Amino acid sequence: MKLFKKLYDWVLHWADTPYGPLALFLLALAESSFFPIPPDPLLIALCLGAIKKSWRFAFYTSVASVIGGMLGYLIGYAVWDLVDSFFFKYVPGFTESLFHRVMDNFHAHGFWYVFSAGFTPIPYKVFTIASGVFKLNFFLFLVASTTSRSLRFFLEAGLLRKFGPGIKNFIDKYFNWLALLFFILLLGGFLVVKYLII
What we know:
It is a single chain. The chain has helices spanning 2-13, 20-31, 40-49, 54-90, 96-119, 124-133, 138-163, 166-197. It has one domain (2-197). Helix content is 82%, strand content 0%. The radius of gyration is 18 Å and the shape is globular. The protein is built from 8 helices and no strands. Helix 2 runs parallel beside helix 4 (54-90), helix 4 packs across helix 7 and helix 7 packs across helix 8 (166-197).
């Protein structure tokens, strides 16, 4: 945990340097495929330091995160065939039939898995790599990633522009719950459209 906290502090220190926007872009790109710290704390810090640039910072973060997600997809797509025999042989309970069952489920609901991981605290990188492993339709993957990541980061930037520094502590404390609530409301809206309107 101490190492994780040091990493977190190292990420935040970039907000006090001229390289903050570049660090934000690289962090968002890396977090979507392998890095453990999300870009949100640095995005919030940069927005609070230059509130008029909030939309620009949210745009950088969204674009980089989607590119990083594509990198995660490529990792899953390219690497799985090289390591699948190891998993089937040495991971208890991991069989080819189980893999194909999960793959069928992912093909049926993969859009929503990626979307929910992109917006909520669910580890996004796990689902970007899984999308490549299970060869989820790349267009669906891209739409889910772009929509969810943009919603997440522009929502944060919008709250900071509207409420200023006072909202920071509230976001820090309740971000996971706020993201989950927004996702439930969004999903509810889709269900209403699907079952009551169409």
